[in-house]
Amino acid sequence: MSALNKAQLRAVRWYIGDVEGSDPFWSDPKAYVTLNALFFPGLTAERARAAEGKRLNPAIVSDGKRLGGVLCDLMSAFRSFGREQTTYRVERFSDFERMRERGGTLSFTSTSTAGFLPAYQDRVGIALMRFALTPETPCIPMAEVLPHYAKADEAEVLLPPGMRLALTELSLADAERSILDAKGESPVLSVCAKPEGMESLEGFWEVPDCPVPWVLDALNEGREPADVGAYLEWKRGLNEYRIVNNE
Questions:
Q1: What value does the mean pLDDT take over residues 225-246?
Q2: Burial 108-118 (b: 16+ CB within 10 A, else e)
Q3: Helices marked H in 58-113 — which ranges?
């Protein structure tokens, strides 16, 4: 797997939370929480993350130039895996439903070669996902691309947005029923996900500044924003621009 350049390495480290300094954009140790919510329609993803106590970062959506740049660098860091591998993910069931409707990944999707990680059982309603990666699957295996991997125990393999998936539902094994969500409930279902190509891996983003970053502040505080139309329109523009310019 070819080495990443400086910009790609910075974007990957930022995504996984290997950050430093005090810049509100670059120092967020959980930037992925906000970033991934931007790929889902409506406010469902933002509401779910805020309800789990995860902070949504207004600084990320306020700076369109930096957001667009880091998205380009992150997407360009994906490489073909080069071998077969099974990876695992404890997914929010609500996010899984969107993936099933779409027929693939909507956002950047963190998986692990170390099984179903307990750290991701802080969600209400979960789906267990096994990803049958092929040699052609574009991904970022963190232990292989980072000179220093700060979260080696997570054995993360990141998958890109826009990956088409063939989903096959599996019977829950007894051991899997003991994997509980934040309310002590067993998984809703278990699936095998087989990658079947990409919408496109090439492309670029030109992202305007979000006109109403305070929408995220309200959700962080447990309040329902009074008017989210401009925020949702900004999100649609971000995703439509990516899709149109990747055709």
A1: 78
A2: bbbbbeeebbe
A3: 58-62, 64-76, 93-102
